[in-house]
Design a protein that fits this description.
Elements (H helix, E strand, L loop, with lengths): L7 H12 L4 E6 L7 H5 L3 E6 L9 H13 L10 E5 L5 H20 L9 H9 L7 H44 L1
Antiparallel strand pairs: 1-2, 2-3
């Protein structure tokens, strides 16, 4: 069975958690929710804070994405704008310490993952081509130019194949003529 290729982002996050352990701080707090009286008495919940601004492995663009995410989502934001993850899945502190790694990787992947752009439909391309170049924004201009480049490559490949087929058919014709003359 083939293994699925790991995305570069997942590899980066794996390496980030392993190598930048000094940027993660952990604090045990009293839990809430299910678990009966034990949850209220013991500090089993682990609250992990990640100082991503001091990270050498994240690019400036990635840091800006995290800041933008934290500005709209207070659940994962600490008072000093650090990424905060709270794990209380288990009733034991040790299990919760193990789970924070998975949880922070999932959160960072959710924040930093960029969906691949879909291909433009024929109607969208026609609409873009008919607009004045001044009215297009940068993203639209970039998509239109990449589409035109792709079309030019396809035309060149078709032309190359056509020329190759013509040469091949001329060789066949010339072989046939030589055979009758002999």
């Amino acid at each position: 069975m083939k293994e699925k290729p790991v995305s570069p982002l997942k590899e980066q996050l794996e390496h980030l958690v392993e190598s930048e352990t000094q940027l993660f701080s952990h604090e045990a707090t009293l839990g809430t929710g299910k678990g009966g009286q034990k949850v209220n008495k013991t500090s089993s919940t682990i609250q992990t804070t990640y100082d991503f601004s001091a990270s050498s492995m994240l690019t400036e663009k990635q840091k800006e994405k995290i800041i933008a995410y934290l500005s709209t989502n207070a659940t994962y934001r600490s008072k000093d704008m650090k990424l905060k993850v709270k794990t209380q899945e288990g009733r034991e502190q040790l299990k919760n310490k193990q789970w924070w790694v998975r949880k922070i990787k999932e959160l960072l992947h959710e924040i930093l993952y960029e969906k691949p752009r879909r291909k433009l439909s024929a109607w969208e391309l026609k609409k873009l081509k008919n607009q004045k170049p001044e009215s297009l924004n940068d993203a639209q201009k970039q998509r239109l130019s990449s589409f035109k480049k792709m079309q030019n490559k396809k035309r060149a490949a078709k032309k190359k194949n056509k020329v190759a087929k013509m040469k091949q058919s001329q060789k066949k014709k010339s072989r046939g003529k030589r055979g009758f003359e002999e």
